[in-house]
Amino acid sequence: MKCIGQTQLNTLISVCLMSLILATAGWSQSLIWLGTFGGYWSQAYGVSADGQVVVGYASTGNGQRRAFRWTAATGMQDLGTLGGNESTAYGVSADGRVVVGFAYNAAGMYHAFRWENGVMQDLGSLGGSYSVAHGASADGSVVVGESDTVAGARAFRWTSATGMQNLGTLGGNQSVAYGVSADGRVVVGYARNPSGVYHAVRWVNGVIQDLQPSESIAQSVSTDGNIVVGWGWNNAAQNFALRWADGVSQALGTLGGPSSRAYGVSADGQVVVGSATDVGFRSNAFRWTQETRMQNLNTVYARLLTRYSYLIEARAISPDARYIVGYGYNAATQRYEAYLLDTRCTAHNGDVDSNGCVDDADLLQVLFAFGITGDNLGRVDCNCDRIVDDTDLLIVLFNFGNGC
Which residues have a Cβ under 8 Å from the Cβ of 146 and sit 6 or more positions away? Predict the structure, then answer.
């Protein structure tokens, strides 16, 4: 039998490990605070399919709200207004090119807008003084929201061909559209019945469907339009997150407190995000699946949060459930800021602290975490196998000194 030497063995192990790393290299789990326009508050409402574009609003130094479009390359971009002082972005197309929301005009009225390639288009109204765009289809060609009319607020569906179409109500004086399916065919929101009670609804090709129960709101919808999420109210006027599948509603629970709201859903309808209170009545961003039930994102991703920072709301999730956006408290800046959370663990070369150098600091972090297991271990789990063990130590050691 021919034996290989220690040098050959080390080389073989190194090649195997490096092959594994190169095959799966990429960005690891991360949390990015998006900042403001000089004020003390920002909030994210939408994220593109690849997680590279985030939209929402941020406050300026004089306290005004301005719609933003954020990318890692450009940072936070002010989308402007329709001639007034303020604007807010609520939705974005899958490719990040189209942004929708509302902006004030020179007359002090706010109108729904559709922004593309630096141009903000006023979508008008249904004859009233105001309108707001809440969501857009995957390609940005269909926009949904609400508009004032002479008879009260009405949900609308807009395309360049049809203009703003009134979607009607359940016999009451109000309706609002919040979400739309990827192909623009299914719209969700709420409508009042003749008694004035809120009911979550779904419009399919313009035909309204009452989702029940009473006193509920639909906020978002899966790609195919079959799964809807939102919230309802109980007899104590407390919110509870809901998920409708095949027309049947399911309460998603809370984080130990009295209330919860669901705001976003993945393409397949299996992952829901929102906000829920804990036993101390503090609001926390959550993620829900049938398997895990409701998880507090502050607990799941505690390693990504600095001391005293926390995530308050999760407002939207990318179609593949990888990226989550919302707002929280950033202790480093002492501001409430929009955030982008990347939940995917991908392998790396042992640079645990992401400073470009594999050194003692990285080795110590792996050693101190040695033996822990779980789905969200952060960068100490160098190869993303859900355990910090000898393999992670070897990755750091074989790359020790790289980039330094």
Answer: 131, 132, 134, 153, 154, 155, 156, 175, 176, 177, 189
- Two structure tokens written together for 26: 């990429």
- Kindly give the pairing relationship between strand 216-221 and strand 110-116: unpaired
Secondary structure of 258-269 as H, E, C letters? EEEEEEEECCCC
Task: Note the pLDDT of residue 384.
Answer: 87
- Beta sheet of 272-278, edge-to-edge order: 256-265, 272-278, 283-289, 293-296
Nearest to 56 by CA among 363, 326, 378: 326
Report the candidate in 72, 131, 138, 143 with the shortest Cα–Cα distance to residue 103.
131
Place of tokens 């939102």: 230
Question: CB-based burial of residue 40 (10 Å sphere; 0-12 exposed, 13-18 middle, 19+ buried)?
Answer: middle
Q: What is the pLDDT of residues 84-114, one digit of tens each?
A: 999 999 999 999 999 999 999 999 999 999 9
Q: How far apart are CA 224 and CA 241, in angstroms?
A: 21
For residue 295, give the H/E element and its range: strand 293-296
Instruction: Tell me which of 247 and 331 has the higher pLDDT.
Output: 331
pLDDT attached to residue 20: 39
Cα separation of 373 and 362, whole Å? Answer: 18
pLDDT bin (cut points 50, 70, 90) of residue 365 is very high
- Enumerate domains of the chain plus CATH numbers: 30-342 (2.120.10.30), 348-398 (1.10.1330)
CA 286 – CA 276 distance, rounded (Å): 7
Q: What is the pTM of this model?
A: 0.84
Residue pair 201/219 in contact (Cβ under 8 Å)? The answer is: no
